[in-house]
Amino acid sequence: MPSQHTIPPLLSSHLYSTVPGGSLSFVTSVLGASANWILLRHIYAALKVSNGDQRQDTAVILVSWLHGLDFWKDRARKVGLSFGKSGKVTFIDALESGLGLHQGGIEEVEHLLLEAIDEAKTFSTRVLLILDGIDFLLAATQVCVAAVLDTIWELREHVHATVVSASADFPLIQAQHSPLELNHAAFVMSVAHQARLIWGVRELDTGSARDVSGVLRITRGPAAKEDEEEIGGQAGEDAQELLYFIVGDGSVRVFDRGST
Q1: 92 and which of 1, 63, 180, 248 could share a cystine (Cβ 3.0–4.6 Å)?
Q2: Could you tell me which of 95, 177, 110, 175 has the C-alpha nearest to residue 149?
Q3: End-to-end CA distance of the chain
Q4: Residue 92 near residue 61, CB atoms below 8 Å
């Protein structure tokens, strides 16, 4: 059974049901602090949460280079979601199929996903596209950063909102000695620059704790600031740092530092 509070209140204003069309959310994680729970909340918000008086008519396409279908089905079930061909969620197992690793390369990724988007639009007016671990292609192939970025930008033109997840471990972002480190850092910085919101999870600086799984930092990206300038809205908080605790039943508690 899903948790009573699948969407933690402190996150409700940042998820799919509140973002404008064309939005890009960038989710980063490190070894020891997974961001899978954030991706699931994006999916849940797209499928289950109403926007004002109107119900969302949204299909979700989840493409994962990091985990297979069984992994996602198990975790989705815990929050009350069902992955299947007859539902609103299309799962593309890029890990098992080797999407982007074959002769077609990144062009194969773009072609297949554009087809999936067109199919999803036959039964939904909006599409949320989630690219989980697409940075894996930078490590596993000779594809250049610009080609991956161009593919992401092209796909964004055909969906209502996009979520991209990537690794942000210190050696990949800060060292920048090897070609892999240089490419990965360039990719992360480029996506972050285009994002409306940047979600970053990491372990506690002080080590492990019994009732805290990690730290979540939500930062407004340049795109959010541009939106506010265009509509003359009041600027929001640039960054919000929270703690989170993942419970065994799949629920997540998100709270401010110092809260109990």
Answers
A1: 63
A2: 110
A3: 25
A4: yes
Mean pLDDT (the chain) is 87
Give per-residue pLDDT as tens, 10-53.
998 888 766 778 899 999 999 989 999 999 999 999 988 755 54
Q: pLDDT by residue (tens digit) across 63-88?
A: 999 999 999 999 998 888 887 655 78
Largest CA distance in the chain: 53
The encoded tokens of residue 48 equal 């289950």
Per-residue tokens: 72? 């996602």
Residues ≥6 apart with Cβ < 8 Å to 150: none
Residue with tokens 């493409």: 63
Confidence (pTM): 0.91
Residue 123 has a pLDDT of 87
Distance CA 247, CA 124 (A): 33
The DSSP secondary structure of 132-187, one letter per residue, reads ETTTHHHHHS---HHHHHHHHHHHHTTSSEEEEEEE--HIIIII--SHHHHHHHHH
DSSP reduced 3-state for 38? helix
